[in-house]
Amino acid sequence: MTAEPSPLAEYLAAHFAPEDAALAAVRTGHRDADLPTIHISAAEGAILQMLIRLLGARRVLEVGTLGGYSGIWLARGLAPGGRLITIEGDEGHAAHARAAFERAGVADRVDLRCGEARDTMASLDGPFDAIFLDADKAPLPEYLDLSLRLLRVGGLLLCDNTFMDGRIADPDADGADLRGMREFNRRMAADRRFTTAVIPVRDGLLAAVRVAP
Ligand SMILES: C[S@@+](CC[C@H](N)C(=O)[O-])C[C@H]1O[C@@H](n2cnc3c(N)ncnc32)[C@H](O)[C@@H]1O
User: Fold this and answer.
1) What pLDDT sits at residue 10?
2) Residues near 99 by Cβ (< 8 Å), separated by ≥ 6?
3) Neighbour tally for 163: CB within 10 Å
4) Does the Cβ of 136 fall within 6 Å of ligand 1?
5) How far is the CA of 75 from the centre of ligand 1 (A)?
6) What pTM was computed for the model?
7) SS3 letters for 59-87?
8) Ligand 1 touching residue 27 (CB < 6 A)
9) What would the mean pLDDT of 88-92 be, rounded to a whole number?
10) C-alpha torsion sign, points 161, 162, 165, 171
């Protein structure tokens, strides 16, 4: 679900989302390590980091770690003393992510939980300042229910891949992932407890501020 690089995307990344050596190594390392290259883009990472910093976030939850690329952007946006909990179900991915967090100098701020997203989310206590959903898409409505228990009022719910490679708006496209995303989007658009917008970066990033319990 990673869009093809374009000159415009490259211009924006070079100016507003420069990667240091650690971030670049994690991204390029996905190919060498046979990890799927379904991580966020640098431009999306910069937006996530800016939003986390704007919030002054001290407790952030990420669902779907992969090799740690988005986790590094998030962890670097935390307020002093802040902590990122990131959930990953695949032990191989988690091992790569742990090494990436070490190399990026954020391991002291990151708590990687290797386990099934649903169970791990259910085991956590809130409140979180921000939650970034970026794992499997079919259970997104359940992840929303779990997030409602964890996210504080004034906190930010973020979800990647709103566009589903453009299939979200194709009436002939179907599948469990697409149905999960459609139901999640439908609920987010209608839920008055959130002020929601979609940032059209890469494959679409939904960002919603919780305005009511
Ligand atoms: C799109 S990738 C995450 C990319 C990462 N956020 C980034 O941008 O660098 C999705 C990750 O979620 C994990 N995942 C998918 N379904 C999961 C589940 N039910 N529980 C835990 N992890 C899951 C996958 O193994 C994969 O590593």
Assistant:
1) 85
2) none
3) 18
4) yes
5) 17
6) 0.97
7) EEEEECCCCCHHHHHHHHHCCCCCEEEEE
8) no
9) 97
10) positive
Q: Pick the atom of ligand 1 nearest to 1's CA.
A: 1
CA distance 33 to 92: 10
Segments of the chain assigned E as strands = 59-63, 83-88, 110-114, 128-133, 151-160, 194-199, 205-210
Compute the distance between CA of residue 49 and CA of residue 66 in angstroms, rounded to an integer.
18
Q: Which residue lies with its CA nearest to atom 4 of ligand 1?
A: 39
Give the count of beta carbons closer than 10 Å to the beta carbon of residue 2.
15
| 177 CB within 6 A, ligand 1 | no
User: pLDDT confidence of 4, banded at 50, 70, 90?
Assistant: low
Cα 134 to ligand 1 centroid, rounded to whole Å: 6
**Cβ pair 196, 207 in contact under 8 A:** yes
> pLDDT value at position 137?
98
Is the pLDDT at 74 greater than 80? The verdict is yes
Pick the range with the lowest mean pLDDT from 24-38, 106-120, 122-136, 158-172.
Answer: 24-38
User: Is pLDDT above 60 for 3?
Assistant: no
Atom of ligand 1 nearest to the CA of 62: 6
134 lines ligand 1 (CB under 6 A): yes
Domains in the chain and their CATH numbers?
Answer: 7-210 (3.40.50.150)
* Confidence tier at 2 by pLDDT (50, 70, 90): very low
In short, whether 142's Cβ falls inside 6 Å of ligand 1 is: no
